[in-house]
Amino acid sequence: MTLPSLTPPTYDDVAAAAHRLKGMAHHTPVLRSTTADDLLGAQLFFKCENLQRTGAFKFRGAFNTLAQFTDEQRERGVLAFSAGNHAQAIALSARMLDMPAVIVMPADAPASKMAATRAYGAQVVTYDRYTEDREAISRHLALERGMTLVPPFDHPHVIAGQGTAAKELFEEVPDLDYLFVCVGGGGLLAGSLLAAQALAPQCRVVGVEPETGNDAQQSLRAGHIVRIPTPHTIADGAQTQALGELTFPIIRDHAEDIISVSDEQLMQSLRFFAERMKIVVEPTGALAYAGAQAFSGADNGGKLLHGERVGVLISGGNVDLARYARFLAD
Ligand SMILES: *Cc1c(COP(=O)(O)O)cnc(C)c1O
């Protein structure tokens, strides 16, 4: 069973999602940093989705989608393929809504992620990522068990849910001049753009990708979706190969620009978050701040963000501790 509606989401869907998420998702805090303000000569506002339930914004889109299942879909349950934050978000949302969940993960996924997904009550089905096709396996399972497959970004309810993070930020911090948002498949960016159109039309929204995986930047320049091989980057949440059929048009029509940053810049941002702001951020979660810094040109005396009010969406904080320790020590 697949989800029926593929109509592009609008701001009304974001507002409806916010209503559904009330009391279910955390209203995450907006943090400030004098050090960052001084460095960029701007006022920065960090929206901390690393402090969201399951450690990333993905809970918003997952819960918003599952909450709209029909009774029959609810009874059969949900299926997702993911080695990352989408898995945990679906697993917890399914538990909260009392429905079965199956998550298809590569057999060599980090043990901590599998354990976390199981702890939220989902059944984990593994596959060999080198010899088996996960989409075929997922489709087969979904068909066999009548479960509904929920994709990580290219679905209207997922996009609308992700947009609620930026909605909260715009409502709490008026008159933002810029908002920086990371880009994988573009669900978070597309949702943020819908929120910006309605709540902060003056705000320029900039997407940020890893340098080695700049497919969205290429797509924006080309005017159509560009697909790339799976990129090598420490930003594992942004190792997507292409934007989605639904996310691309929204990004093409409304994003100010898409920029990219190196893994080295991401590691510097991780250290900044740990040392100065006392928060744990995963590499992908640091894209937006690294992007704001690169955009400003502050490192070379640049002043592009001087005097501006700048939102930075920190997307997640799930990182294996041994790996995190290596990033901090390097
Ligand atoms: C999924 C994810 C992203 C990318 O989000 P998209 O909606 O696919 O663009 C970024 N950061 C984190 C922490 C994620 O889990």
TrEMBL record:
Its cofactor is pyridoxal 5'-phosphate; Mg(2+); Ca(2+); Mn(2+). The keyword Lyase applies. One of its GO terms (molecular function) is threo-3-hydroxyaspartate ammonia-lyase activity. Keywords: Lyase, Magnesium, Pyridoxal phosphate. Residues 27-316 form the Tryptophan synthase beta chain-like PALP domain. PROSITE patterns: DEHYDRATASE_SER_THR. Its EC number is 4.3.1.16. InterPro entries: Ser/Thr_deHydtase_PyrdxlP-BS, TrpB-like_PALP, TrpB-like_PALP_sf. This is Threo-3-hydroxy-L-aspartate ammonia-lyase. It comes from Acidovorax facilis.
